[in-house]
Amino acid sequence: MTQQTQMETINLATDVLVVGAGMTGMKAASEIAANGYKVVLIDEGAEAGAAAIVDLDGVEQAAFEVLRKTVEGSELIEVLSGTCMDGAAGMPGDFKVWLSGNDDIVEKSVGAIVVASELVACPMNEAFGLELSDTVISQSQLEAKLADNPAAFAGKTVAFMLGLAQDGHPLVLERVLKSVLAMESLDETSAYVFSGDLKVAEDGLERLYLECRDKGAMYVKLTEMPAVSQEGGLSITYEDPVLQRSVALTPDIIVVEEAIGADQVNAAMAEMLKIDVGSMGFLQTDNVHRYPVATNREGIYVVGGSRRVKKRYGAIMDAENAALRVRDLLGNGTVSVPANKAVLDTGKCTFCLTCFRCCPHGAIYWTADNKPVISKIACQGCGICASECPMDAIQIGEFNDAAMIETVTRSAAEKSGDAPTIVAFCCQNSGLEAARMAADFGMPLPKGLKTVAVPCAGKVDIDYVMRALAEGADGVVVMACHNGNCKSEKGSLYASWRAANAQQTLETIGVEKERICFATTASNMGSDFSRILMEMEAKLSGK
């Protein structure tokens, strides 16, 4: 008879905080409110939604106005302009946030947080040795001037610098092409686009590129930076790839490209919310388990410009995905979780803070009387804290120490003739799936292979490894996710450190360290799993 897991019901706050009232933030707020949740939408600007929008054809502005009216007309959305988040604490379903604005600080209780910071454009004039002036302007300055007085460019020769100071990006290209198209609609205006690679692999970009060309825009593809000067008048000198000679152009205006990146507010936001910062200052690491909108902390989601450089439709999809994740988390205000998901014995705990420091999900906090608590909602059951705890004070559900030792002892004692017994600890997110794939596809596997499932390689305790060898295993393999692709972010690192420590212990007592192997794989790499295990068998057999 299968023993049923005892469940625990936890009440959740169902209000949601959305940080950033640009287009993505307003879309997220409207989608979340449509699911019946109250939303607090904050923005540091004096007017919510006042962030600059790249818009020369009216499409962006029209979509923006529809969203603004939806937000303003919703009884479930509270808009706080001129407001920022000063602090945050708590766990998913029970976050406390402190909002400051109008010389006042307000505390709110929310169940989830969505960060929707905007992208920031930075002119790259210095890369061309130029200073911004009346004749050398940034892409954002050009857009503002075109929106205000397009006739000012009539009869001008305008040169655009694109993809020369940085790798091309579809969003950057779209902005330039829309500006070029606007230029070509003016009388006696000529547009030149000096570019590196043009990234047109995005919906509508190739059509826009061709339309600009057909209207008269001149594209000059370069393999190196041209010589650009603004002393005594503008000049651009370059090696023409068609004419095979040096050519000089004297435009009236040079438009320099802009680097589009993360807002600097992200760093403070990450520290406040205890979420990982990815490349280029965005609030999401390059980890497949985080896509599309998750962070390392349950209940905190990132959308649009807070996580990537995205065009409008991609940011809108993020907002919709965040609303779905919020609904999955908060439901009707209660959630049932296994009572033994993560159990902490305060009698064994010495309050050393090891678990607090190593938890990759921010699931451990301290009560007012200095007692540690593991949030069963925030905890993702990886077991890193349990295996790092020096007092074994933490147990993880079905992967508790007693159950793991029993499984390891049984597996190590089982023999398959003369074949060496290999105990492979397999992360259930990668190695275990790869093992099943190898078996299902009939790939060669050691006859004495015994797989032991773990929730994450970070749960593989040195005690488990040494117990396997002591109980008769000839070799042990710790199979983890690739670095940067671990669902628990750091589980693979902890596993590699423990495997190395176990190898050092074997050397100290005069046993070959090669009897322990650490390897990484992915769930679809059955052939690699087969190769690694067969190599281990050959090594143990002395072949």
Automatic annotation (TrEMBL):
GO terms for molecular function: 4 iron, 4 sulfur cluster binding; metal ion binding; oxidoreductase activity. This is 4Fe-4S ferredoxin-type domain-containing protein. It comes from Desulfosarcina widdelii. It holds the Pfam family Fer4. It comes from the Bacteria. Keywords: 4Fe-4S, Iron, Iron-sulfur, Metal-binding, Oxidoreductase. InterPro entries: 4Fe4S_Fe-S-bd (IPR017896), 4Fe4S_Fe_S_CS (IPR017900), FAD/NAD-bd_sf (IPR036188), Fe-S_Ferredoxin (IPR050572), MvhD/FlpD (IPR003813). Residues 340-369, 370-399 form the 4Fe-4S ferredoxin-type domain. Signal peptide: none annotated.
